[in-house]
């Protein structure tokens, strides 16, 4: 079932999502060579709790940490670890969620660690641009497939591939609501977009082939060919004036600059 949100509920969701953006901004400060992904997790957990919220991911379906940290060929759901230490040239996708005032915030950003190759930067840039291309399609009386087709077409024209097994989703009082929002599909297909819908759009785009595998930890998903993967996510509301982005990359970009 698709739950339509009131103006008041959308404002509460915006507050939860802005906190996610601020948390990602804190992580942007320390996503550097020599830092472990477990250190990132501890900083995020403390920051979220200090702002009156709880980490949405911790314990969700058994997930053991407060953020997902996916490095290089890892697509999503990487588990933070003291054994995974960032090094120069890595990329790391951080997916973060909060629960604040009864609503979930959810957003993701892929960071460059030190000096990253130009081709990898092009992957990140394309994935981020595709996110905003998809958001532009998120208007009343369009369909989910309009978002999906736009993201797929944009990325494939740039020579990258779109993960099929993982999709965006509705979001609200729970982490995952209807509808699913794939990053591939056909224009004109899928649920109708209506005022008050709140969805997470999150392209997961690979430098190599689209195929993925799940690691032995039962969480981490990586590319089969071990080519690197990028992931950006915004939570948005469908509104009469056009899509309203509830999350924010501003806090990250205040630290990193618009490097991609």
Describe, in plain words, how this protein is organized in 3D:
This protein has a five-stranded antiparallel β-sheet. With 260 residues, the protein is of the alpha+beta class. The mean pLDDT is 97. The chain has five helices and 15 strands. Helix 1 packs across helix 2 (37-50), helix 1 packs parallel to helix 5 and helix 3 (118-136) runs antiparallel to helix 4.
Describe the protein's topology:
Elements: H1 7-30, H2 37-50, E1 54-55, E2 67-71, E3 74-76, E4 91-100, E5 103-112, H3 118-136, H4 144-157, E6 161-162, E7 168-170, E8 177-181, E9 198-201, E10 204-206, E11 212-214, E12 221-223, E13 229-231, E14 234-237, E15 244-245, H5 250-256
Antiparallel strand pairs: 1-4, 2-4, 3-12, 4-5, 6-10, 7-8, 7-9, 9-14, 10-13, 11-12, 14-15
Helix pairs in contact: 1-2, 1-5, 3-4
Q: How widely separated are the two ends? A: 37 Å
User: Rough shape?
Assistant: globular
Strand order of the largest sheet: 8-7-9-14-15
Largest sheet: 5 strands, antiparallel
Characteristic terms for this protein:
260 residues, alpha+beta, five-stranded antiparallel β-sheet, four-stranded antiparallel β-sheet, 30% helix, 24% strand
């Amino acid at each position: 079932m698709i739950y339509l949100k009131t103006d008041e509920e959308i404002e509460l969701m915006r507050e939860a999502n802005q906190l996610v953006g601020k948390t990602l901004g804190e992580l942007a400060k320390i996503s550097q060579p020599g830092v472990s992904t477990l250190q990132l997790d501890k900083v995020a957990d403390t920051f979220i709790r200090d702002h009156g919220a709880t980490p949405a991911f911790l314990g969700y379906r058994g997930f053991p940490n407060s953020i997902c940290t996916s490095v290089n060929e890892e697509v999503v759901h990487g588990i933070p670890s003291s054994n995974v230490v960032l090094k120069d040239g890595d990329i790391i996708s951080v997916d973060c969620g909060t629960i604040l005032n009864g609503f979930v915030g959810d957003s993701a950003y892929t960071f460059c660690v030190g000096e990253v190759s130009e081709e990898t930067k092009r992957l990140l840039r394309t994935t981020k641009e595709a996110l905003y291309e998809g958001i532009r399609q998120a208007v009343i009386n369009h369909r989910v497939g309009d978002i999906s087709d736009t993201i797929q077409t944009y990325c494939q024209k740039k020579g990258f591939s779109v993960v099929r097994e993982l999709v965006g989703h509705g979001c609200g009082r729970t982490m995952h609501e209807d509808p699913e929002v794939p990053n591939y599909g056909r224009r004109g297909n899928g649920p109708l977009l209506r005022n008050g819908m709140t969805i997470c759009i999150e392209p997961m785009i690979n430098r190599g082939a689209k195929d993925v595998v799940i690691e032995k930890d039962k969480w981490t998903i990586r590319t089969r060919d071990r080519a690197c993967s990028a992931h950006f996510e915004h939570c948005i509301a469908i509104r009469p004036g056009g899509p309203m982005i509830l999350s924010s990359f501003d806090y990250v970009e205040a630290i990193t600059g618009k490097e991609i």
